[in-house]
Every structure is written in structure tokens, then in C-alpha cells.
Specification:
5-stranded antiparallel sheet; 3-stranded antiparallel sheet; alpha+beta; 16 helices; rod-shaped
């Protein structure tokens, strides 16, 4: 108490001593204020912040050596408010300062405090997003777009508050005065509003999630989704290029999401062998005997011959000619072989749709389509299984007396003509 009473007298004596130098006392008080602000900053950041750093590092979810990431950025931002408030309070007691200067410094300190708080809130939202993304279901319902909207609102309010503080007016009348500019603001933030609506729809129905493989030819996108933000969705294409798609495009335009294929556990093979229709024919006894050596066809050929023998016996009983009899074809036998080969292949998913069918004949031959699913959805494994299947089918076609249709050049014809001319 004695010190508190004596202090004003010391100040009076000091001021009296410095009367020959009018600004000396003012500069001394300003220096003392700057020292007080520095001490406040030192105590806040070096002592308080260091203690909070140790506390945050012990929170669940922070690995050893992790100092809290965005959590500490929030605290360090808020720590900047303390010295600004010290300056705002102390500058008002500095003697002989112009009123306009004092008002400006106070307003600048308050504006700095508002900006600092806004930045701290922004970092807090980033920290909240980091924590949310650690949840197992975060990929299905990202909240990054919503948090970005909150950031926009925070910074708009902070900007209005800073303007009101520097102009020396109240925030309420300033906001009211901006009512006439609502249409302009709606025009400025049109994309943001549309993106927000799109983000709500995307998050609600789960049409796109982080890690999904999407294909959108109109935007030259074909790859994995690596980021979902308010305005854009970032896709890393398979050639390692990056494509950014406006979020609203995923609502207004069509795209393909391959997540269903990945979740089903099978990737479709849909490819046709184009056969030369001139190579299709009936199998004679020698051909049947040769094909019966295939283990996959023994049961099929036995059942088929039994079925045809009964059918043909009924025809003979009716007195019909032998030309009406049914016989085994090389194409039908090959189709049966392909189906049985696929069902015993370790890379083919036999619990999913498996078809071997003929399509409409074309000028390029008779398409024999293989429709099935691989057990692996990985790209490399899928291509390996598909290639292995068609390698085998192309190689074994001659054993059934079949040929693939292939348009060739006139080189063979010219060679034959040259041989005939040489012989002549």
C-alpha cells in the first residue's frame, strides 16, 4: 500500500525533473508501455504457451513428439491479443499525446484483436476437421465444406467489425446499411452458395467420398478423389495429373463412380472374340473323340450325345430323313468349354454373373462375348487375369477348328500373285 501511495509522487517528481524536455516524459511512458506489452507477450507465449503445449501433447490422438498442430496455432493466435490489449489500455494514460493518435492506436489495437480472434477461430475449425477426419466414417461424410462456410461467415463478421472499429461507428448500423447491398453480395457469392448446396447434397447422399474412383469425361477427370472442399473436388488422375472439378458440377452433370465395383469385390470383364463364321461347322466322330480328351468337356459331350441320341431316335421313329438330325457343333462345344474354363479359373469370381454368349453377327465376324467378374478389383491384377483368359482362348481355338476373324493386308495376295507369275 505504501508503494501504491508513493508511486504517483514519484511520477510527479520525475515529471517535474523532466520539465526542461517536454517530450522526454512522454517518451519514457511510451517506452514503459512498450516494455509492459513485451513482458505480457513474453509471459503469454514463453510461459503460458509452453505449459499449454505440454498439456496438448498429452491429449488423446496426439502422437509422441506432436505438439498439437492446429491446436497450438489457435493458442498462439489468441496469445497475440494480450499485448494489443495492454497497448490499447496503456496508450490512454500516456500524457501529451494527440487525441486523434490515441483514438487511432486504440482502434488499431482492437481491430488487430478482432483479426487475431478470427484467425484463431479459423485454426480451431481446421483442428476440428483434423479431429473429425480421424473417425472411421469421416470419409463417407466430410465436413470440410461446411467448415469453410463457417470461416467465410467469421471473416465477414470480423471484416465488418474492423471497419466499424476504425470508423468509430457501431456494428449494428453498419450491418443495417449493408442491407441495400444484399443483392450485390448474393451475386458475388453466387458460386459459394451453389457450391454449399451441392456440398450438402453430396454429403447427404454420399455420391462422392474421399478415395472414390470417379470418371467425368466432361472435366477430363479419371482417378481418385483426394480432397473435397467447398468450391472444388480434387481428383488425382491415373497419369498422376491433378484435376479440380467445381463441386456444383457433380450435381448438374453426370459422372461415373466406381465405388460400387470396389465394394462388390469383383471387376467386370466384357470382351468378345470375333470368330470367322466360315470356320463354324459340325463335329464328326474323329473331332468328338479328340475333344473328349479335354477333362472340362467329357461330361458335357457325354450328356450332349445322350440328349441328341434320344432326339434323333424319335426322329427316326417318325420316319424323318437323317438330314433333320441334330449334331454337335464346334462353336457350341467351344462355348461350353469357355464357360467351364472360366468357372474353374482361380481369378474369376464364380458367385457373380458369368456368361458366354453370341452377339449379332457383323461384317467383322461372329462376336462370342465373355461376360464375367474377376475376384480382384485392383487394376494390375484385373488386367493380368483378363489377359491370361484371352491368351488361353486364342491359343486353343484351332483345337476346335475355329478361327478368329482378322482383317489382313493385301501382302499375302500379292505374294501369291508373284508366285503364280514366277511359275508361269
Amino acid at each position: 500500500m505504501l508503494d501504491a501511495v508513493a508511486a504517483p509522487q514519484w511520477l510527479q517528481d520525475l515529471q517535474h525533473t523532466l520539465e526542461p524536455w517536454p517530450w522526454a516524459y512522454t517518451l519514457l511512458v511510451v517506452a514503459a508501455l512498450a516494455l509492459a506489452a513485451w513482458l505480457a507477450n513474453f509471459v503469454t507465449k514463453r510461459i503460458l504457451l509452453r505449459g499449454l503445449r505440454k498439456l496438448v501433447s498429452r491429449l488423446p490422438g496426439n502422437a509422441a513428439g506432436n505438439e498439437g498442430g492446429n491446436n497450438l496455432r489457435v493458442i498462439s493466435r489468441l496469445a497475440n491479443v494480450v499485448p494489443s490489449m495492454v497497448i490499447a489500455a496503456g496508450v490512454q494514460v500516456v500524457p501529451d499525446l494527440p487525441a486523434q493518435l490515441v483514438e487511432f492506436v486504440v482502434g488499431a489495437c482492437r481491430a488487430w484483436a478482432v483479426l487475431t480472434v478470427a484467425l484463431a477461430v479459423s485454426h480451431a475449425l481446421d483442428a476440428a476437421n483434423d479431429l473429425y477426419e480421424r473417425r472411421p466414417d469421416a470419409r463417407n461424410k466430410p465436413i470440410k465444406g461446411y467448415l469453410q462456410v463457417v470461416k467465410i461467415v467469421v471473416f465477414v463478421i470480423a471484416g465488418l467489425s474492423i471497419v466499424a472499429t476504425l470508423l468509430g461507428v457501431k456494428l449494428g448500423p453498419l450491418v443495417t446499411g449493408l442491407g441495400a447491398a444484399t443483392a450485390v453480395l448474393m451475386l458475388i457469392f453466387q458460386d459459394t452458395i451453389l457450391s454449399l448446396v451441392a456440398s450438402v447434397q453430396i454429403s447427404g447422399d454420399g455420391r462422392v467420398r474421399l478415395g472414390d474412383w470417379i470418371e467425368m469425361p466432361s472435366q477430363n477427370a479419371d482417378g481418385d478423389v483426394i480432397d473435397i472442399a467447398l468450391h472444388t473436388i480434387t481428383v488425382q488422375n491415373f497419369d498422376k495429373t491433378i484435376t479440380t472439378i467445381p463441386t456444383k458440377k457433380l450435381v448438374t452433370e453426370s459422372f461415373k463412380n466406381w465405388r460400387g465395383m470396389q465394394e462388390a469385390g469383383g471387376r467386370r470383364i466384357k470382351r468378345a472374340l470375333y470368330l470367322d463364321q466360315h470356320s463354324v461347322g459340325f463335329l464328326d466322330a474323329e473331332g468328338l473323340a479328340r475333344l473328349e480328351q479335354f477333362a472340362l468337356l467329357r461330361e458335357y459331350l457325354r450328356d450332349k450325345q445322350t440328349e441328341l441320341a434320344q432326339w434323333n431316335a424319335e426322329l427316326r421313329a417318325k420316319g424323318m430323313d437323317a438330314i433333320n438330325a441334330r449334331r454337335v457343333t464346334n462353336l457350341g462345344t467351344f462355348r461350353a468349354y469357355v464357360e467351364r474354363y472360366l468357372r474353374q479359373h482361380p481369378g474369376i469370381h464364380t458367385d457373380m454373373t458369368l456368361l458366354v454368349r453370341q452377339l449379332q453377327p457383323t461384317t467383322q465376324g461372329l462376336p462370342l462375348e465373355i461376360y464375367c467378374f474377376t475376384r480382384s478389383t485392383a487394376w494390375a491384377a484385373y488386367e493380368g487375369v483378363q489377359s491370361d483368359v484371352f491368351d488361353h482362348l486364342l491359343a486353343i481355338l484351332p483345337a476346335f477348328g475355329l478361327r478368329v476373324f482378322q482383317a489382313s493386308s493385301d501382302a499375302m495376295l500379292m505374294a501369291a500373285q508373284q508366285q503364280r507369275a514366277f511359275a508361269e
